[in-house]
Amino acid sequence: MTESTTHPLDAVDPLASYRDRFVGASSDLVYFDGNSLGRPLSVSGPRIARFVEEEWGGRLIRGWDERWMSLPQEIGDDLGRVVLGAAPGQTTIGDSTTVLLYKLMRAAVAARPGRTEIVIDRDNFPTDRYVAAGIAEECGLTLRWIDVDPAAGVTPSLLSSTVGPATALVVLSHVAYRSAWLADAPALTAIAHEAGALVLWDLCHSAGSVPVSLDEWGVDLAVGCTYKYLNGGPGSPAFCYVASRHLSSLTQPIQGWLGSVDPFLMGPSYAPAAGIRRFVSGTPAVVGMLAMQDMISLIESVGISAVREKSIALTSYAISLGESVLGPLGVVLASPRSAAERGGHVTFNHPLMREVTAALWERDVIPDYRDPGGLRLGLSPLSTSFAEVEHGIGLVAEALESLA
Ligand SMILES: *Cc1c(COP(=O)(O)O)cnc(C)c1O
Asked: 8-31+303-403: which CATH number, 2.60.40.10, 3.90.1150.10, 3.40.50.300, 3.40.190.10?
């Protein structure tokens, strides 16, 4: 990773220099978890400090009227334009992904009265499954489970054979958190719609690494994190998208004052605001929304399709190197081999991967572990180098050899 050993793939990578914009990128630490918590951009620290001095410290409560109150919708529009393929007025920032899943799932099932089922796959992220189960219990609905190949994900034929006239809502992840399976979102959305259901996409593992075209795909609802590929920092608030055609009819269950028509009227009862603001509940997390703005503008200047190209190059390299170096040690690929079916991370399985991960963390190599036996390498496109992948996979092999 020193200058004298520039990796040939870094030498020809047009985005190689962006790595220097991230805090800590010059150290020898190997970071394979940018899909769980992105590295901070160097400009974010000064931006946050400036905010404390000038806006919070200087404007004090006037800041709400001057700028902060509309920030969730402003950043939502930027995110929509740069990352989500969403026209303005349909995206807002706030809450956690989990809370937004609850709000949107409740809104969706209420909009399909008489339909009794929520369709979700068994390998979807735990919080998605748990929230869906809670809503099913609360609203007297049934969960219809899709069983999937854990090294792949939900296919059009699996979904077609599950949805029907009872389906109110289909909840899917665009990129599977374990295998990185990249769902065919436009095809799956069309299948849900043919059955008369709404569809809610979880974009946590795609937003900022895989191009998304929510408007073009006809998606109804979407949510996602901002602390993964959007580098918003630990616990930065999530985003939600509600297609404009649903904005006047859907209502969400957490009827807070800041989602009401006129919050400062402080009236006797709740009436939802027009537009996406009706999905807001309480005071926005302004400090938590600062860093993500830096990453959104960086992605805008690079272009999401160039980000995706580098992501594919990184994951393809990790697969070929991983199979040649780790394959002989009994490691098997647990992610799609085809780049068109794969998001921004790669998972390799071996029964000792839990121990391997612990040993690697001790040596400043940071992947994560996902049951059963999965070593997950998240390769955040703008902050990961090919040299880092090579160095890290070499150390995985060493760790595995010494543990086996
Ligand atoms: C990371 C992740 C979440 C996290 O939800 P939080 O409410 O931010 O904890 C949800 N869904 C998916 C698919 C994720 O990958």
From this structure: 3.90.1150.10
